[in-house]
Specification:
Blueprint lengths: L4 H4 E4 L15 E4 L4 E5 L4 E3 L97 E2 L5 E2 L21 E5 L7 E8 L5 E3 L20 E2 L11 E4 L4 E6 L2 E5 L5 E3 L1 E2 L13 E7 L14 E7 L4 E3 L2
Parallel strand pairs: 1-2, 10-11, 15-16
Antiparallel strand pairs: 2-3, 3-4, 5-6, 7-8, 8-9, 11-12, 12-13, 13-14, 16-17, 17-18
Length: 317
């Protein structure tokens, strides 16, 4: 048995290393050219490193099951379980946790759809009538649309035509289109305009003819109780409450009643119309005179029918 330290711890070139059977069991030999430390077990040299990291244990883990080893003597045990190691560990798919749930909505590591790579050219993400999905591949035709069955279709044409109806290059907002000619394919602009409130407008110099028939009158202006709240010159309406057909002329309302009676709305002399032709009649409520032919002035108490004679308003006799 070796009794000296230099007998159990030796160093030199690897080529000068003695046989493992020629030294005492446990002898360490450090090869200075390869920087490898080995230990003799009496038969062979075994790799040994007392630095800790990258070392093998100075005991056999399969037989020495008791005792506590210093951390510096623990070798690279993890590498024995790697592929190609002395004790590789294999994990089957069934032993793996449900990793995909971590990337789903509400998981610890959700992945947004728009951050993924582009999909393959297949139908995996297509929508169907039984499952959600994305769209099928585009048709590349600008005039098609995605119909309710998930296919690209061409819109049907209406009225038996071929879908080639044309119109003017521009139009006025609200103007109604009408057909030009008899082809059913050409539209033109109509002078009739309907605004967003439903009011109908006509451009100037347009005459509308309402032809009566054997069953219906040509024009019916409709009825309202009393008068509309806002009156505009040219308005025509039927006062159902008083059975009067009324028309707004300038600032005056002309009334036509039963038995051919025409009524003029009373106004003050100060509110009489101006710029009217000779012979215009108005009904004055505050005349200072009531003698026929007398020139009228306002501020009185007489109700008279006045006529404009081209110069003054006089009482009609």
């Amino acid at each position: 048995m070796a009794s000296r330290l230099q007998d159990v711890i030796q160093r030199g070139l690897s080529s000068a290393k003695p046989l493992a059977t020629a030294v005492a069991i446990g002898t360490l030999y450090y090869s200075t050219d390869t920087q490898i430390t080995e230990r003799s077990d009496g038969t062979t040299w075994q790799s040994y490193n007392d630095a800790g990291t990258g070392a093998t244990l100075p005991i056999d883990l399969t037989t020495d099951v008791t005792g506590i080893l210093p951390a510096a003597n623990i070798g690279p045990h993890a590498s024995t379980h790697n592929a190609g190691g002395s004790d590789p560990i294999t994990i089957t798919t069934a032993q793996l946790p449900a990793h995909h749930t971590t990337h789903e909505a509400g998981g610890t590591d959700p992945i947004q759809l728009d951050n993924l790579a582009g999909p393959d050219d297949n139908v995996d993400l297509n929508a169907s009538t039984t499952a959600h999905g994305l769209l099928p591949k585009l048709s590349g035709v600008a005039t098609t649309f995605l119909n309710g069955t998930g296919s690209w279709s061409t819109p049907p044409s209406g009225g038996g035509g071929t879908g080639d109806v044309t119109g003017p290059a521009s139009s006025f907002d609200g103007n109604l289109p009408v057909f030009s000619g008899a082809t059913g394919k050409i539209l033109k602009q109509n002078p009739v305009r309907i605004d967003d409130t439903g009011v109908i407008f006509l451009v100037d110099d347009i005459r509308i003819t309402f032809n009566p028939g054997s069953n219906a009158a040509g024009l019916n202006v409709g009825a309202v109780f009393s008068d509309p709240g806002t009156l505009t010159p040219g308005d025509l309406w039927y006062d159902l409450g008083n059975n009067l057909l009324k028309a707004r002329i300038g600032s005056q309302t002309i009334q036509l009643g039963i038995a051919n009676v025409i009524r003029l709305t009373e106004i003050t002399f100060a509110s009489r119309p101006t710029g009217v032709p000779t012979g215009t009649l108005v009904n004055i409520s505050d005349s200072t005179v009531n003698t026929p032919g007398s020139t009228i002035a306002g501020g009185g108490t007489n109700h008279v029918l006045a006529k404009y004679n081209g110069t003054n308003w006089v009482v009609v006799g």
